[in-house]
Specification:
Layout: E1 12-13, E2 16-17, H1 21-35, H2 44-57, H3 63-72, H4 74-85, H5 96-113, E3 120-126, H6 132-148, E4 153-160, H7 163-171, E5 173-175, H8 184-190, E6 191-193, E7 201-204, H9 206-211, E8 212-216, E9 231-234, H10 243-256, E10 262-265, E11 278-282, E12 285-288
Parallel strand pairs: 3-4, 3-9, 4-8, 9-10
Antiparallel strand pairs: 1-2, 5-7, 6-7, 10-12, 11-12
Bound molecules: S-adenosylmethionine.
Amino acid sequence: MSAVIDPRPAVAGAAGPILGDAEFQFLREFVHQRCGIALSDQKRQLVQGRLLRRLRALGMKEFASYCELLRRDPASELGELASAISTNVTSFFREAHHYDYLADELLPRWLEHKRRQDDRLRIWSAGCSSGEEPYALAMVLAEALERSGSTLDAKILATDLSPQALEAAAKGVYPLGRLDGVSAERRRRWFLRGDGEFDGLACVHPRLRELVTIAPLNLLHEWPMRGPFDAIFCRNVVIYFDQPTKRKLFSRYAAMLPVGGLLFLGHSESMHGLSDEFELIGRTIYRKRA
Ligand SMILES: C[S@@+](CC[C@H](N)C(=O)[O-])C[C@H]1O[C@@H](n2cnc3c(N)ncnc32)[C@H](O)[C@@H]1O
């Protein structure tokens, strides 16, 4: 982090306004405090590029006005800011081994043990982006329920802080090209192909919508739900967070899981040195210890 901040106002270049030192410093602190995202000096160009579109959408000519908006009304702009600077990249059945583990190991065990009238099964997709992760989880869950003939009360909670991501998740409509990770059988079973003006698009089956509840949630804020969850998928989200934020988040996840409950992280994420409440039991699969 640069210690010296250039107090000169940012000037507009040919390609649009330039993100000056003072504004970058403000944005960096804002994003760190409210989203846990740590921006290095190297991210300055990226932030400038990503926020340019947002400035245009708001009809603003300089970053100082945008910072002013954040100071005045931080809550209303937070989601837009976070989604502009973080990536929403996702896909159906990304890191497929997690879905295999769910289908082959966890669901048969859970469905075998959860047989009482008041038993529930709850999975949380935390940082669900545009919905591919929770809908893929719903496919696996729906198939397991059907196979076992279980009528268990089972649901997937899907949360994110990005308004655009949540809107796409709620729509549940995807270009056919985005269904690459979905087997031909599952495409037939779980998607409705559009025609006419919807040609080239596929819409998720109503059964999947029924299993998935989509809600806005900043992981750094208060959580309205009490849990417990049987499993939490928080994959490719904490990659942006600094170590203290990760440590705190993992401890909050532990509080939402029963002993033996599972936490799934993304392929490049690890809990190493950040929590002793979990043990590693598979590739980025963690189990809450007794
Ligand atoms: C790269 S996507 C990962 C999507 C999916 N979990 C996957 O692995 O494919 C990261 C998501 O985390 C969300 N995110 C980042 N910081 C967040 C926070 N503080 N609270 C909630 N969601 C956050 C972003 O909006 C984005 O949609």
